[in-house]
Write a structure and sequence with these properties.
The protein is mainly beta and 173 residues long. Helices cover 12% and strands 41% of the residues. It contains 1 helix and 8 strands, in the order αββββββββ. It has one helix at 17-37; strands at 49-54, 61-70, 73-81, 109-117, 120-128, 133-142, 147-153, 160-170. An 8-stranded antiparallel barrel has the order 1-2-3-4-5-6-7-8. The longest helix is centred in the N-terminal third of the chain and has 21 residues, at 17-37. The chain is globular.
Length: 173
């Protein structure tokens, strides 16, 4: 036995058209909101982005540093500091020399001249605003791009100190 269904034709824009349009619009907005809420997935093989450095001794955050790359050269600038309650909320680099002497720490370029060499960036330098000294530097991504090993040294890399910075966000387009 075969059942034949008859469809009633309704003109476009009839009584069923409006609810369908509302449903489609809602689904479109829902999809757009879901996409906007998702974290940006950028290149985890690049150190470009915002990083938090943590004090080696206290384990507390010290600063947010924005790494940028221009013409294959990496540089890092301090965007925000997290001073302890007994520290100056607007610190300056009073132990720095030259143009950086007494410069505000926020906005200070502390990492410069690093070029990609294999799986790391090397050949640059890092400024330690706490003591005003400049060291040779290398950086390498670790933990699938979630962490950055930053090494400052005198002479050879074995004679230095490393810090691990934690990625806060990917680089800006």
């Amino acid at each position: 036995m075969m059942i034949i269904m008859r469809h009633e034709r309704r003109p476009a824009g009839g009584p069923r058209a409006l609810p369908l349009l509302v449903v489609l619009a809602f689904q479109g907005l829902s999809a757009a909101a879901a996409l906007a809420a998702m974290p940006a997935r950028a290149d985890q093989t690049s150190p470009v982005g915002l990083w938090k450095n943590v004090d080696d001794v206290s384990g507390k955050p010290r600063a947010l540093i924005r790494l940028t790359e221009s013409n294959g050269v990496l540089q890092g600038k301090i965007e925000k500091v997290f001073p302890a309650p007994d520290e100056d909320p607007n610190p300056t680099c009073d132990k720095c020399e030259g143009a950086n002497r007494n410069a505000p720490i926020v906005g200070l370029v502390i990492l410069s001249g690093l070029s990609k060499e294999g799986d790391e960036y090397a050949g640059g330098q890092i400024l330690d605003p706490d003591n005003g000294k400049v060291y040779r530097s290398t950086v390498r991504l670790t933990d699938n791009g979630k962490k950055l090993s930053v090494r400052g040294y005198i002479g050879v890399p074995m004679l230095g100190r490393s810090q691990t910075w934690i990625r806060q966000e990917q680089g800006r387009p």
